[in-house]
Specification:
heterodimer, A: mainly beta, 6-stranded mixed sheet, 11 strands, globular, B: mainly beta, 4-stranded antiparallel sheet, about 0% helix
């Protein structure tokens, strides 16, 4: 089946540093979603992207829909301890009206104060 | 406040017992989903329902059952046929149509003793 490959798997950074992570697919997606999950909680939607080349920001977070439609990137600027969590990319397979999202395996972010 | 409520938050079960996880939403969303999450992995779809009295199997439906008798409720039963039921279970809902993204509950952690 279709898969989303996320990298890196984990990151351990110093507070204040910028963070970049990405998600790639072997097939085209029409929507890219980025979620954050904190320990023991459900994922929370951070950013939704609907158009190739789209660049969208949410506070210190910026995400881009790759122009090939096979990848997406998430950047976090000036990281703070509350950024800790697992970041997932996700998307509905094209032509799937039931919106069965496919999720990447996540990037685990740890921030050192 | 509108949202998705999952209960119980933690559940312990002996092998051979069925257990039902509750999911209730007051967002007036049409579609509801159940995902399973294992450590270090992404989310995998168990079942989903787009309208009342209708539901479809996801990628890992074996050993699970659901019902959708009311728009706001989508309970998941983990049966004794599920070989490895210990996991974190997440319920989600969305409005059908473009731009209606998935909102998740806080999850239920099931441990089989």
């Amino acid at each position: 089946g279709q898969q989303l490959n996320q990298s890196p798997q984990s990151m351990f950074i110093q507070e204040g540093e910028d963070v970049s992570m990405n998600c790639t697919s072997s097939s085209i997606f029409n929507t890219w979603l980025w979620y954050k999950q904190e320990p023991g909680e459900g994922p929370v939607l951070l950013i939704a992207l609907y158009k190739a080349g789209e660049l969208t920001s949410n506070g210190r977070l910026t995400a881009q829909f790759g122009i090939t439609r096979k990848d997406s990137f998430l950047n976090i600027s000036a990281s703070i301890p509350s950024d800790v969590g697992i970041y997932f990319c996700a998307g509905p397979p094209p032509g799937d009206s039931s919106y069965k999202l496919i999720f990447g395996s996540g990037t685990r972010l740890l921030v050192r104060p | 406040d509108g949202g998705i409520t999952q209960s119980p938050k933690y559940l312990f079960r002996k092998e051979g017992q069925n257990v039902t996880l509750s999911c209730e939403q007051n967002l007036n969303h049409d579609a509801m989903y159940w995902y399973r999450q294992d450590p270090g992995q992404g989310l995998r779809l168990i079942y989903y329902s787009q309208i009342v009295n209708d539901f479809q199997k996801g990628d890992i439906a074996e050993g699970y059952s659901v019902s959708r008798e009311k728009k706001e409720s989508f309970p998941l039963t983990v049966t004794s046929a599920q070989k490895n039921p210990t996991a974190f279970y997440l319920c989600a809902s969305r409005n059908r149509g473009r731009g209606g993204e998935l909102f998740f509950g806080e999850g239920s952690r099931l441990t089989v003793l």
